[in-house]
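Researcher: I need the complex structure. Ligand is magnesium ion. Inputs:
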Amino acid sequence: MRDENLMRTYMPRRDAASRSTTSTSETQPMSRSAAETGAPTSGLLDSYRVAREPYYRAVGDEVALYEAAYSVRMPIMLKGPTGCGKTRFVEYMAWKLGKPLITVACNEDMTASDLVGRFLLDASGTRWQDGPLALAARHGAICYLDEVVEARQDTTVVIHPLTDARRILPLEKKGEIIEAHPDFQVVISYNPGYQSLMKDLKQSTKQRFGALDFNYPEHETEAEIVAHESGVGVDVAKNLVHIAERARNLKGHGLDEGISTRMLIYAGSLIAKGVAPLAACRVALVRPITDDPDMRDALDSAVTTYF
Ligand SMILES: Nc1ncnc2c1ncn2[C@@H]1O[C@H](COP(=O)(O)OP(=O)(O)OP(=O)(O)O)[C@@H](O)[C@H]1O
Ligand SMILES: [Mg+2]
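Model: Output:
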């Protein structure tokens, strides 16, 4: 009984899910603001809609897991090395769920105001401009904070009240508290292993998120993706994946990072344009990831094994 009361009075995340624009059965009390009721966002976020279905080749149960997480408005962390499909996945999910997607590329110079918003001076005086996080929270978008560890920790903490049960964003300078729109969700990306101890998410940030692990797909799937995205045939794509697998085995033995799916797509695109495979692989796979002459030789010989 007590629990039911609690649920009725203070369950912002569950309320958000049930008030979402996808559920039409519930009528809302008059006092709720547009942001809270999930009313149409009057075209404000139209430019953030993913217009066409992005090509995304699922590699496991990540689509179903994300949908379940979104249905309870759980903030999600996408973990995985560079160029393995995290951004593509979130674009695909935004399209599938029919929600606008606001992406923020985080960097260490970013301040809380860059996320939340600031007063601007114009001819008619000062006016408030929502930052991307406030825009997403107010009008109901998925806010994707790419490379969130790049941001300073004092910046990252502004997402805390939005990513726990409160689902609010206090705009201290403006004296306003935004109650997150029911469709709002935070997604962050994170490259495990790139962090130093100084540059990692706080536990209090990490523990506000569910996490999905990403990695390079298994051979056949990755070749399918490379062929689709670059326009080369599957046989060429498979050879490219073989080369990448060799390079990935050198990670930690002279290479900081293996060859990503993105790099394979670059190589494939050059080959599809008529560049000789050897040259294409040197430009797109070997030279970008290492300057070490021995390592370049080792990778070159992997290339010549397959082309
Ligand atoms: N599962 C997949 N389905 C379709 N395309 C994929 C998939 N995985 C990777 N790709 C392709 O690889 C490219 C790179 O992926 P993406 O940009 O999503 O990487 P990322 O994980 O976000 O990397 P970073 O951490 O550097 O931002 C995409 O543009 C897409 O073409
Ligand atoms: Mg990305």
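Model: Summary of the prediction. The beta strands are 76-79, 101-105, 117-122, 125-130, 142-146, 168-171, 176-179, 185-190, 210-213.
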